[in-house]
Amino acid sequence: MLTPIYRHIATYSSTYRALAITVLLVMLTPPAWVPPSEHLTHIQAKDFITIHTRNTPTTYYEGRQGPTGFEYELMQRFADHLGVSLNLNASHHPESVLPAVREQGDLGAAALPLLPNTPGIHYTRSIIQMQPLVVYRRGLHGIAAPKDLVGLELGTLSGAGTSQALLALQRDYPQLSWKESHELEVAELLARVENDTLDAAIIFDHQFRLNRLFFPNVERGFFLGEPLSMAWAVPSQRGLGLLEAANQFLQTLQEDGTLAQLVNRYFGHDDYLEYVGTRTFLAHLDERLPTYTGLFKQAALETGFDWKLLAAVGYQESHWDPDAVSPTGVRGLMMLTNPTASEMGVADRTDPAQSIDGGARYLRSIKDRLPESITGDDRLYMAMAAYNVGLGHLYDARKIAETRGGDPDSWQDVRTALPLLQQREWHSQTRHGYARGGEPVIYVRNIRRYYEMIEYVERSRQQFFQLSQTPMDDESLLLFELIPPLN
């Protein structure tokens, strides 16, 4: 018979033995097995895929033809490839996407840099290369090499990947410092460079090409470090089925040339809104406009516009090229979207007669839908702006103008508010979200400029030249060059 002390020892020994066996079993038992296609099967069963993204020009935003953006097109194609609907969560900033993917699924697509060994995340194959670029305020001199960044007020976006190049550079230049923010987007960062809050910023080259026209006082500097790969992110604990499907999808797009076409469409045309020089415009005026003048005049009779204004819109849209395709994929001389063409009864967008007629009637319908409180030239300019950016974004800008103490019926005040749609601080409060708000401002300014030149040429020819017989001399060309730009 055991004494009490030995009885306790025996009890403890049994307890420790059982505990040891339990620990050993836990150590030897593999983690819960996840079927390789568990995640993909779940997505197909619920019939939609949730993608975490950002409301930016390179990812996703609402354009005049509806949702658009480089990664949005890829997302929509991938959802179609899987045979499911697309459900977007576009409320993120760069640093919030990966936690959402880990905790909620299904996929992150938000200009994400491929950073190896990210906990809980698998990355797809590379989609495009993203080259960090130094941009700086015009007027600063000697910004030509990495050493020139020391001592500057420098900024970048937190979580975007650009800070990797700065961290590498800091090893050579310990005095280098910079500010990071997850509350800003690229347009806001560039605005801070332009308004002297920052001296310079680090963004990606393709982002600058999309935004440079809106920030004329920001200069392109030099590339910094090596390119990073843009990739998609999926949770790593739910099998490899979705990752493999995404990689196969992206590889197919790369091999059949579709990916290259999308890259060229979104990032290969940074001069869409550039004002065309006088001599180029006059050459097109002589070579192209006569073919379509009758069509513009007929459309003007039916819609009540000045035919020269319609011609100016057509030139801004396509340079009077009926086969033109815009960076966002709309077509024709007046660049009608598919929904707009359908609404206007246009069967062939590349047919000049149908395009001019449909474009004029669409501009008329926009003008007629504006509130009656908007009158005169303000009404015309806002209609043209909405032709470019969409009525929804125009209404958002009017609300911003009113919030800032301006007049929502004044083009002057709305013109100032439109670029704020590029800033998260403002577009997060609107119904339609981010827009390339600087674009309609340049768009309207260019049309007014082209209209003025067409009118000048017509008046000059009637007064001084025989139509199409006498070329314009250098003195007349000089007069065109001296026409002041419109604000």
CATH topology of the largest domain: Lysozyme
Strand residue percentage: 5-15%
- Classified by CATH, the class of the largest domain is Mainly Alpha
User: Helices and strands: which structural class?
Assistant: alpha/beta
Mean pLDDT: 85
Q: How many strands? A: 13
For the record, the count of structural domains works out to 4
What is the molecular shape? globular
Largest sheet: 6 strands, mixed
Rounded Rg: 29 Å
From the coordinates shown, what is the CATH architecture of the largest domain? Answer: Orthogonal Bundle
Low-confidence stretches: 1-16, 18-33, 479-487
Distance between the termini: 106 Å
The helicity comes to 40-55%
Number of helices: 20
Give a written overview of the molecule.
By secondary structure, the protein is α/β, with parallel strands linked by helices. It folds into four domains: 1-30; 38-128 and 231-267, D-Maltodextrin-Binding Protein, domain 2 (3-Layer(aba) Sandwich); 132-226, D-Maltodextrin-Binding Protein, domain 2; 278-481, Orthogonal Bundle (Lysozyme). The chain contains 20 helices and 13 strands. Strands 1, 4, 5, 6, 7 and 13 form a six-stranded mixed beta sheet that branches. A five-stranded mixed beta sheet has the order 10-9-11-8-12. Strands 2-3 form a two-stranded antiparallel sheet. Helix 14 crosses helix 15 (376-389). The longest helix has 27 residues, at 438-464. The radius of gyration is 29 Å and the shape is globular. Residues 1-16, 18-33 and 479-487 have low confidence and may be disordered.
